Amino acid sequence: xxxxxxxxxxxxxxxxxxxxxxxxxLAERRIGIVGRNGSGKTTLLRLIAGLVAPSTGSVQxxxxxxxxDRKAALSRLGILFQNxxxxxxxxxxxxxxxxxxxxxxxxxxxxxDAARAALRAEGRAHxxxxxxxxxxxxxKHWLCLQAVLMMQPQTLLLxxxxxxxxxxxxxxxxxxxxxxxxxxxxxxxxxxAVAGADRVIWLDAGxxxxxxxxAQVLPAFAAEMARIGDSDADTDLAG
Length: 239
Ligand SMILES: Nc1ncnc2c1ncn2[C@@H]1O[C@H](COP(=O)(O)OP(=O)(O)OP(=O)(O)O)[C@@H](O)[C@H]1O
Ligand SMILES: [Mg+2]
Hints:
With about 240 residues, the chain is of the alpha/beta class. Helices cover about 35% and strands about 25% of the residues. The protein is built from seven helices and nine strands, in the order βββαβαβαααβαβββα. A six-stranded mixed beta sheet has the order 5-6-7-3-8-9, sandwiched between helices. The protein has a three-stranded antiparallel beta sheet with strand order 2-1-4, with helices on one face. It binds adenosine-5'-triphosphate (ATP) and magnesium ion. Adenosine-5'-triphosphate binds near residues 16 and 43.
């Protein structure tokens, strides 16, 4: 079966159930996942990416188990982590961008050439030799997104891809993503970031609260977020 298939998948950690009984078949090209902080969005992405195994049920990506068949999963999936510091491996911008291409078998000089060409195309040629440690948080996030895009995986899993990006950079990235033929799963707490998706899944407390076209799911999500915001939003954190 093509696409991402979860069959009654649950995930528990630290004695707590984080995702409960998720059954989803995600085959659309543009999929958005929304939900509050702590609703389980990142955990769902880690499950799809095979970084954690479901406690019960199963997860398959294009017919493979991403947790046991790591090699096949990594060649299919590109992952943007929410925290760039969990993603960046190399000291300089060009090395970070070249890494994925090296993994795909390109020799280092050609991978570095491709990295520099990508930076030139983005008007950031002068970043090539810059130490990653000198970049701001938003700039690191941009770098991680570029690194994922370099590899052109069949499916991209993006966890808050616009977090920390300034408006012009976010607009440019939005246009880039819109032009990609690949499947995109975009996680965001911001309804606007997934308004153009084919399908939006609203996660709440580790369960699917709504699943459907954005015009159906997002107004309900926004209304519920506004309702919670109008009450004392922090009172339920203790629960
Ligand atoms: N390994 C773990 N052990 C214990 N609890 C965990 C673990 N991983 C996640 N959690 C808990 O699971 C819940 C969901 O976390 P998750 O990171 O998936 O949420 P999220 O929707 O991505 O939130 P945010 O919008 O803040 O990024 C949180 O309550 C979190 O504390
Ligand atoms: Mg998260």
